[in-house]
Amino acid sequence: MAHSDRRIPAVVPSRRTVVTALGAVACGAVIGTRRAAAGQAAAPGLDDPAKKETAMKLVSSAENSSLDWKAQYKYIEDIGDGRGYTAGIIGFCSGTGDMLDLVRLYTDRSPGNVLATYLPALRRVDGSDSHDGLDPGFPADWRRAARDTAFQHAQNDERDRVYFNPAVARGKADGLRALGQFAYYDALVMHGDGDDPTGFRNIRGRALRSARPPAQGGDETAYLNAFLDARVWAMKQEEAHSDTSRVDTAQRVFLRKGNLDLNTPLDWKVYGDSYHIG
Predict the structure, then answer these.
(1) Radius of gyration of the chain measured on its C-alpha atoms
(2) Regarding the domain delimited by 13-277, which CATH topology (the fold level of the hierarchy) does it fall under?
(3) What residue segments make up the domains of the chain, in order of their start?
(4) For the residues of 209-235, what is the DSSP string, one character each?
(5) What is the distance between the alpha carbons of residues 244 and 46, in angstroms, rounded to a whole number?
(6) Which residue positions in the chain have pLDDT lower than 70?
(7) Residues 46, 182, 161, 117, CA torsion sign
(8) C-alpha to C-alpha distance for 161 and 193, rounded to whole angstroms
(9) Positions marked active-site
(10) Residue 17 has what pLDDT?
């Protein structure tokens, strides 16, 4: 999800498997109960509306060099990363399956929409960087569809179903507050959750080899440092992700300040550009 000056891709080919790996995470409620019993009011999680808006802006700063994430519904281009077209608010890709799932959802809700005729082509190009059956009209039709509130809602819902909600649930199950939940979400957006070593589940597994999350009796700050170390390792495995400033000068900054609840105001940098949320 980015403009033509984008410097990193949003996804990896295995990202469509994210939902299947995270499983049931009901113990988050137990963690909240323990905090309440200890006399600590549970702070809002990342699914709190204000926190979620912050998360969308943080990701957009890294993916789009802009805090205006809602301007990205119409975004579409092939950034040359081998995943075909990248488009929309979370970088849905024609080569990774999540764009196909999105257009299916939109068509289920709005039969006969301008993108529905591309479903056969999206099925054919899934798993490749091909534009076969998509060119020349698909980008212009995507931008047309983006003016439809039904398509905007479909993008929001697929983002939440595949990336945001699983990240928040897994974070809560691990006893993490909003910052940790955001670290999980940002990792899922970029890396997906396939079986490859750089997928989310294996980033988390790498972190667990050196630290325990709060749900397992560990220190939250120490665990998040381990997770971010593992995330940086994963990013450096692929040239397109090798700039790690979205971790080094953003998430690490919040962690060093002890801002585990991701409270505003926030100041950070990505690729040397400065951002602020008041």
Answers:
(1) 18
(2) Chitosanase, subunit A; domain 1 (1.20.141)
(3) 13-277
(4) TT---GGGT--HHHHHHHHHHHHHHHH
(5) 22
(6) 1-41
(7) positive
(8) 14
(9) 63, 81
(10) 41
